[in-house]
């Protein structure tokens, strides 16, 4: 029995689509296995001061290790929310915060005392580092091998989930939904998963680092509104590397 040309074409197209999906899955799995240990937990205790009162709060987030020394980058808002709160403070008394305790949490649950070594409020980035140099090089991503994706290019995002999932690692594939070039370049990836992307590394399918997720906020009379005055972005790897060059050396 002969297959009609139209049906044959449809079957061939389905085959190509399936093969492409398998290829993306294979690449995503390889990136996950290679870099999951470079996505570490962050346990921070903050002292928040506002209105003459001081309270401590405990936060869990994650960070991307960018050097064998354990130097890692995370969203500044995750460990010092005062900058974001000040943006929407309305001109009154501004809240302040300071880090009481900071620990990097490795995949096996080991908590490594750490410190904030650099803050970049413009990019919402904080660079943190173990207080003592690790005995062996830590798993990390290479920021020098970077990618500059275009609109609708597929990217792979590695994340570390919260307590409900026992802080397991996860991975998903998204597409670049926006590219902003001025005054500073950044990428917009999947707003429906925006919060998950914060502090997470984003890779091209060929394994190069696109950047790390952060929060961009501007002042607005209407307060923080996602997409209007508040946006989750991917800070390019080149900006991550530039910040690394400003980190002071160990004493």
Give the helices and strands, then pairings:
Blueprint (H helix, E strand, L loop, with lengths): L4 H31 L3 E12 L2 E13 L6 E4 H4 L2 H6 L8 E10 L5 E10 L4 E6 L23 E7 L8 E12 L5 E4 L4 H4 L3 E4 L4 E9 L12 E7 H8 L7
Antiparallel strand pairs: 1-2, 1-4, 2-3, 3-6, 4-5, 5-6, 7-8, 7-10, 8-9, 10-11, 11-12
Q: Would you mind describing this structure in some detail?
A:
With 251 residues, the protein is of the alpha+beta class. It has two domains: 38-130, Trypsin-like serine proteases (Thrombin, subunit H); 154-244, Thrombin, subunit H. The chain has five helices and twelve strands. It has helices spanning 5-35, 76-79, 82-87, 194-197, 237-244, and strands spanning 39-50, 53-65, 72-75, 96-105, 111-120, 125-130, 154-160, 169-180, 186-189, 201-204, 209-217, 230-236. The chain has a six-stranded antiparallel beta barrel with strand order 1-2-3-6-5-4. The longest helix has 31 residues, at 5-35.
